[in-house]
Specification:
The chain is mainly α. About 55% of the residues lie in helices and about 10% in strands. It folds into two domains: about 5-70, Winged helix-like DNA-binding domain superfamily/Winged helix DNA-binding domain (Arc Repressor Mutant, subunit A); about 85-125, no CATH class. The protein has helices at about 5-15, 25-30, 40-50, 70-85, 90-100, 105-115; strands spanning about 20-25, 55-60, 65-70. Strand 2 (about 55-60) and strand 3 (about 65-70) form a beta hairpin. Helix 2 (about 25-30) packs across helix 3 (about 40-50). The longest helix has 15 residues, at about 70-85. The radius of gyration is 18 Å and the shape is elongated.
């Protein structure tokens, strides 16, 4: 999996923020609040995201409804995996990453590493 282009990223952010599958029209209307954008552009990008595996879709009447194929967190973890694979010495890359975590992030990481079945968000950790 690779990173997303600027419009793809905006669309995926909207899809991940939604609580239900969305039509092209709904995504277009949401994007059009911030910028002028053609409906067909949004439709094409969402179709491309579907073919790349980022969005699932189901026909509903004459239109498709789209939903994310993975969570935002799963996508981000995949990107981190690619960075680690391309970053040379994995341990050194991880060390530099951990050095930049704040105390809450470091505690969440510590919880996940010591108990993988425990959510990093339990007991108020973020």
């Amino acid at each position: 999996m690779r990173g997303l282009g600027p419009l793809e990223a905006k669309i995926m952010q909207r899809m991940w923020s939604g609580d239900a599958p969305q039509t092209v029209r709904a995504v277009h209307d949401s994007l059009a609040e911030d910028r002028k954008i053609a409906y067909t552009t949004v439709m094409t990008v969402m179709d491309n995201l579907h073919h790349k595996g980022f969005l699932g879709r189901e026909r509903q009447g004459r239109a498709y409804v789209y939903s994310p194929a993975t969570t935002r967190e799963e996508h981000t973890a995949s990107l981190l995996g690619e960075v680690l694979a391309d970053g040379g010495d994995r341990a050194n890359v991880l060390l530099h990453f951990v050095e930049h975590l704040d105390a809450d992030e470091l505690e969440a990481l510590r919880r996940v590493v010591t108990d993988p079945d425990r959510s990093p968000h339990q007991d108020g950790a973020r």
